Amino acid sequence: MLFQLEKVTKTYGRITALKDLSVAAPKGAIGLLGPNGAGKTTLIRTLLGLINIDRGGGTVLGRDIRVKPLDIRQRVGYVPENECLFPGVTGVDFVRFAGELCGMDFDDAMQRSHEVLDYVGVGEFRYRKVESYSTGMKQRVKIASALVHDPTLLILDEPTNGMDPAGRDEILALAHDLAHNKGMSLIFSSHLLPDVEHVCDHVVVMNRGQVIQQGRIAELKRVHRQRYQVRLKEPPEEFIAKVKEAGCIVDFRDDLLEVQMNDGQDESLLWRIASDLSVQIRHLRPQRSTLEDVFLSAVAEVR
Amino acid sequence: MPVFEQGYKHWDGDLSGHAWRWWTIARQGVRIAMQGWLLRILTIMALLPALVLVCVFVLWGFLEQQAEWALPIARMFFPSEVVADPAAYRIIVWTLAFHFFFKFELFVSMILVLLVGPGLISQDLRFNAVTLYLSRPLYRWDYFLGKLGVIGWFLALVAILPAVVAYLLGVLFSFKLSVVADTWHLLLGCVGYGLVIVLSAGTLMLALSSLSRSSRYVASFWVGIWLVSSMVAGVMTGIHGEQAGRAAMKAAVLDARQQPGNPMPAHIEQWRRRQAAEMEAYLDDWRPMIAYTGNLERVGRALLGVDAVVDRLADEVVGRRGSPEGRVMTRVIFSGPRFPWEWSALILLALFGASLWLLTTRVRTLDRLS
């Protein structure tokens, strides 16, 4: 297991940030989803041993969060959400210093700093003061500083915030590469569902301090056997009317029909109607839940 | 080109333990601070008094051996009885040499702290760097200790280290091991006084630095505490001395009227008594405690044993010449106000406690809502 928490409760005064939260996540790329105030950041800080929880306990990478917080942080790289920098240093010194703070000696940290800066694509900017960097560059340097000591687990908190589309794609590609090709476990906290879907295999959905849905993304995005997406070559009005006559519910958005069929009906009905009307079906497939559907329905259930 | 095409390599080197992690922070802080040319120049200039201190000890060592070349030079600075029997006055000269060295270095230390300290925490708060520190395998105390280490490094470089080196050279050039038996407490006093300056000025500056995200404001706070408190103490001490002098002068005028046969001209007697009263008032005054550096200096004098040595100097050297004003003046010039040093120690301790409280309040853990 990557981490395992058991009945964790954390309150800040009258606000309950985590409420009897129990969750277990396997190694790999874990997406952490939830609306603002869901408790994602508190969960991350709990995993890093940065906060004192009121009740419960758990382990990260097999180490107790209450007993060995430093040991956990030694093996974890954390990229915070907000803009944060060590002031007055160049990019290469920033990452080198981060390595030294984790216990690397100067020479190792310097050599490793150049390696990870190459990896995240900072290039010759590494010799400039970090205060002068763009948002994207700052984000890359933060990621490099989290990678410098080669952590077992990398935690990225909203890593694509404020980035331009090209930079965002590169960060997502980098996160995907680390998780799927380099054997590094990843916790990817974001409110951008496509980002999580692109990077992660497993998702934990949170709301109001509780885990409301979790599992492998592929399993959560289940196939609906009686719900189909259809696209026609010709105008669909006549086709829609016939399908409705057969007792199906049809939703027409853009040029795509979403057909909800009844028990005992299957896609052969659609083929037959198309044949009768001599219209050409260009696209037909069972509908899948998107991650957005999963997220919205989970959040709606709690409300 | 996707950024990951550069490739990611795993690293399997050894990580050091946690005990010296604070030193990493201190070293980084020193490295950044040394980028400033003003600080580099001041640090080098601050070492010049150490050269003077070393010269004094070397000269003294040769004087104790009655080296011919040293005698004429020594006669320029010391009375004849001291030159004739230097070993008897060794502890006085060594103590005063350290006393004046630290007096100068205390002033330099305040400037160094002003140059090094303001940005130590304020810049971290401004750039949210505290999150980066605390999310690594560090405790909050490692962070504080590392930041204190930056100030400590500079103050140790200009005050503690030169004092220790000068002491060792003094022992070396005296060619007598008995010197160590006489003076070992000075070595402890120097190191102790240096640590008091580092801990007190360091924590106070860090606390001030945690109050604002602007280094300029922090520097202003520091100048206020250092210079303004010194000025207030100076003005109040001056007023107190002036009042005592006027009262003594008034009494002298009354005495002159009642004793018309006094052979000394009235205005000289009045002036003499006024001077004496002002000096006595200065020695008994508690007002220098208002100055932050006044308290540091008072504790330093106690640690180096300056007052006892100055009393000996006043009684044994100046006193032989028979002038009571001379003795008082010796105490005024070579020592200072004699209010209890424990009061100053308590004030510094209270400031230290308040600084730690402020630090822990302002630089909080991440155990809070963002």
Molecular structure report:
- The complex is a heterodimer of chains A (303) and B (370).
- Chain A has 303 residues and is of the alpha/beta class.
- Chain A has eleven helices and 14 strands.
- In chain A, helix 6 (165-181) links the parallel strand 7 and strand 8 (185-189).
- Chain A is elongated, with a radius of gyration of 24 Å.
- The two termini of chain A are 30 Å apart.
- The model of chain A has no long low-confidence stretch (mean pLDDT 89).
- Chain B has 370 residues and is mostly helical.
- In chain B, helix 6 packs parallel to helix 10 and helix 6 (90-116) packs across helix 14 (306-318).
- The longest helix of chain B is centred in the middle third of the chain and has 44 residues, at 215-258.
- The two termini of chain B are 36 Å apart.
- The model of chain B has no long low-confidence stretch (mean pLDDT 89).
- The chains are: A alpha/beta (303), B mainly alpha (370).
- Chains A and B meet through helix 2, helix 3, helix 4, helix 5 and helix 6 of A and helix 1, helix 7 and helix 8 of B.
The total count of strands of chain A amounts to: 14
Mean pLDDT of chain B, nearest integer? 89
Which term fits the overall shape of chain A? elongated
Q: Which class do the helix and strand fractions of chain A yield?
A: alpha/beta
Strand content of chain A: 25-35%
Point out poorly predicted stretches of chain B.
Answer: none
Largest interface: A-B, 51 and 43 residues
Q: Tell me about the largest β-sheet of chain B.
A: none
CA-atom Rg of chain A in angstroms: 24 Å
**SSE string of chain B, helices as H and strands as E:** HHHHHHHHHHHHHHHH
| Number of DSSP strand runs of chain B | 0
* Average pLDDT reading of chain A: 89
The backbone outline of chain B, from C-alpha atoms, is flat
Which bin fits the share of residues in helices of chain B? over 70%
Summarize this, please?
The complex is a heterodimer of chains A (303) and B (370). Chain A is of the alpha/beta class and 303 residues long.
